[in-house]
Amino acid sequence: MSAAPPRIRGVRARALNVPVKRPLAVATGAVTHSAFVLVDLETEEGIRGASYVWAPAAYAAKPVAQLVAAFGEFLKGDPVAPVAIEQKVRKRLTLLGPQGLQALALSGIDMACWDVAAKAAGLPLARYLGGSPQPIPAYNSNGLGIMGPERAAQQAVELAAGFRAIKVRLGYPTAAEDLAVVRAVRRAVGDAMTLMSDYNQLLLPSEAEQRARALDGEGLAWIEEPVRADDYAGCARVAAAAATPIQIGENAWGSRDMQKALAAAACDYFMPDLGRIGGVTGWLRAAALAETHGVPLSTHLFPEVSAQLMAVTPTAHWLEYVDWASPILEAPLEIRDGAAIVPDRPGNGLAWNEEAVRRYLVD
What we know:
Layout: E1 8-26, E2 29-43, E3 48-55, H1 58-75, H2 82-92, H3 101-121, H4 125-128, E4 136-140, H5 149-160, E5 165-169, H6 175-189, E6 194-198, H7 205-215, E7 223-224, H8 232-241, E8 246-248, H9 255-263, E9 269-270, H10 274-277, H11 279-293, H12 303-310, E10 319-321, E11 334-336, E12 339-341, H13 354-360
Parallel strand pairs: 4-10, 5-6, 6-7, 7-8, 8-9
Antiparallel strand pairs: 1-2, 2-3, 4-12, 11-12
Helix pairs in contact: 1-3, 2-3, 3-11, 5-6, 6-7, 7-8, 9-11
């Protein structure tokens, strides 16, 4: 007989606002700080599960923390069975809805539950899910915002160190300026460097088609979110018109949104966000969808846990690397020769630098 799963004793949530080492200016705004909600799930058996949720705005961090704490209250005493816990919380959300801040809170609890389950088994999350820790190809997504050709070229050289791929943000006033930045970055880093691009939902479909055609032939690995995230028909227009692959997915709320996007032929590639797709449980559903549709799957943020999940993703493509959580981690994710090194220790690898956490707490 196998041992019974640990039972939830309580859930602690803390809101943080952490400065970003390289402030990122994109076409639709700027990221100077990362608002995180740290989730610590305590069990009766003494095993602690850790996760974090990235809140797109600082004012959202405390409400998400409150939701995590509220969910934790009615989960007390439950066995740590991630799928069953997800279903229980979703039933409570029938009237409120499963998207938005409540989805982020649920994802945080889900990730912490899987961390507990893997630790109870004495395995890294990747091994617990049936895979094995292995180097995951990663691109550097720290910086390279809207800054003009000269500065972009200079920063690209810095970001390329230790990587084989980087991402540049586009969305300048004209297509000619976008093209000038891409060419300046390419000259600076050379042809061997893989170069991704991201419009951050800036354009209307007609203009997106024109700009995508202008960028065809520049050797970009993909054009990301050229139009509004939920405009699947518009994105499908761009995907049909462009020779360069179209990448979307970070704003999909769960696998049902992903299914809608794939059914609309809205993209060539997909990149779920671990907080929005539904944590580890949601990611596994997304990975299954990607396999059945033959779509390469990349990640959005959450590189520490996402690296573990890429090891069990059949169509695994690229890991997006940002160091936004590194200041609050005991052991930040290691990048070696352009790949993320999945730690070979029990759980998802997250452990807090408590001194730094206290420094960045939101009152």
